[in-house]
Amino acid sequence: MSTAEPVVDQRPVRHGALHSLKKPVFWNIGGLFFFYFAIWQLVMTFLSLWLEEEAGMTSGNIGLVFSVIALVAFALQPPYGYIQDRLGFRKHLFAFVVVCGALMGPFFAFVFLPIVETNQVLGAVVAGAFLALVLNAGVSVVETFNERSSRANGFEYGHVRLFGSLAGATASLVGGFIWASNPDNIWWAATFSAVVLGALLLVMRTPKPGDAGYTALAADGGADATKDAVDRSAFRTLLKDRSFVGFMVLMFGTAALYDVFDQQFPIYFAEHATAVADPQVLFSRVVFVQILLEAAVMIAMPFLINRIGAKWGLVAFAGVLVIRVLGSAFIVNTEMLVLWRLLAAIEMPLMLVSVMKYITRMFDVKISASAYMIGFSMSKAAGVFIFSWLFGLSYDAIGFSASYIVMGVVVVTVTVIAMVLMRDDRGRPDPGKDDVEAAEVTR
């Protein structure tokens, strides 16, 4: 008679999105996204208008503010990535971003205005450098920390990232009322959001060495997850990886042009949306709807990317961008212009979820923050810096429609090059997920 023990299926149980909703840490990370992107939306929506109307800055010096933001953020990406990878789940760099955000109100009330009254150029440089710490450089810290924390807790990054979209819609709506009461209160609202953000960061529990989720720092489930020191050879390997080179090319020519296309699209929209009395009011409402749709699409996007692969998710993002750009060039009635803008609700989730999944599946996740900041943020910043100027000149020389055709050709070209260089990620698991799920089964 056999005395063998019965076989027990020890494969980890897959949990769905509803299971994530039961975890307090899900709402904690969602809150981090919400209150950070509330700061982002408040600043980016009202900054130019405030600088012109309240600070009395010229258009050229306002442009200088944005140039300094981009340049400082570009310079900070490599050290920020290296530091965050060294820190792992420690919160020090995130906390620095929060402190800078909390100083938003005092900075604009007591520091910036006296400087700009003396010298607008100096004020533009100081403001740009300060805002870069919170926004264009700080966002990479927030995104990579929250992505790693999401992976460590066994749920999809895209599901918590939708809180950022909800924050964008909420801050746009609430910010309008704040602006109407007192434009200076925009900065104090940003400070309030940063204080709440800091409280949420303080109470958040992060994995410690030995916890199942700590394997999110390792290259795979079998690696030594307690070693979070970053090997310089990993950086050399990353930079020589053809998939990483292709990824950088794609971000340079698609993620950057996504921003460049949207920079002056409101002007183009107003020129052609002649069927309404106030095109700018219509456009603001379209953007509000687009952000809400973006949040809804973000819920389903991880399931789609898990099925088709992150590489093809990025190709799909580029494809939607081409449709928007060329569609805007050839079909310019009001209804279709609204449609082209609403398509952005698909683009952003495709890009964000695919970027994170491609980085963590294809490259050493011990340096995932560096891979994100160099491969995505720096490549995108370089593209924005170059293409903003070139297409700005192009709009004046040949008009928006012809420029959009050129832009579409650029997107198609870089996408084809990237498709050849980038390897397929299908079949590669999200690192650390099985360890977290297996640990939950044994509890």
UniProtKB/TrEMBL annotation:
Q: Does the keyword Ubl conjugation apply?
A: no
Which Gene3D superfamilies does the record associate with it? MFS general substrate transporter like domains
Q: Report keywords, A-Z.
A: Cell inner membrane, Cell membrane, Membrane, Transmembrane, Transmembrane helix, Transport
TM segments? 25-50, 62-81, 93-115, 121-142, 162-180, 186-204, 244-261, 281-305, 312-332, 338-359, 371-391, 397-421
InterPro entries referenced in this protein's UniProt entry, alphabetically: LacY/RafB_perm_fam, MFS_dom, MFS_trans_sf
- Native organism: Isoptericola haloaureus
Q: Where does it reside?
A: Cell inner membrane
Q: Which PANTHER family match?
A: 3-PHENYLPROPIONIC ACID TRANSPORTER-RELATED (PTHR23522:SF10), BLL5896 PROTEIN (PTHR23522)
Topology in membrane? Multi-pass membrane protein
Q: Would you tell me the protein name for this molecule?
A: Oligosaccharide MFS transporter
Q: Which residues form the Major facilitator superfamily (MFS) profile domain?
A: 24-426
Q: What is its main location?
A: membrane
